[in-house]
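For homework, think about our next protein:
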Amino acid sequence: MSSKPTQTQSKRERMVLYVTAVVLLAALAIGGLLAFSAARSNQQAEEKADQLIAKLEEQGARTPTKDQIVRVLGDDGGAVCADPNAALNRAGLNAMLVNGASGPGIRPVIADSKVVQGELLILEVYCPDQLADFQQQVEDLKLSEDVAG
């Protein structure tokens, strides 16, 4: 009599079991990593939203809700930080600083400096590495502190 147990499964059945187990473990590990990074991203987004709200309140500006900021800006600043100094983005900003006419009647105006303060604060919180270039761009604009509105 031998004390060695006898195998009741074929080698193919064991391989299927092993491969299935490895695939399930890999799927669970990937799912866990994604859930962890999403939770971390949400936490970062909420912390940055709190910072932005505090800075907006310091300026006396109306503030959106924390949830709105998180949805729009996320944890990386969203579209605001997607190269704010590119030519097309600069043109978009300049196009908003006009008299409101269209066609040949459109004229640039000396706008209130508050029109760019919000974007400056967002850049300061979400992508400070791009803030200096944007500030240089804003310094080239003719803005006023006392525009009647």
About this structure: DSSP finds five helices and two strands in the chain. The beta strands are 111-112, 143-144. The mean pLDDT is 86. The CA atoms of residues 77 and 126 lie 5 Å apart.
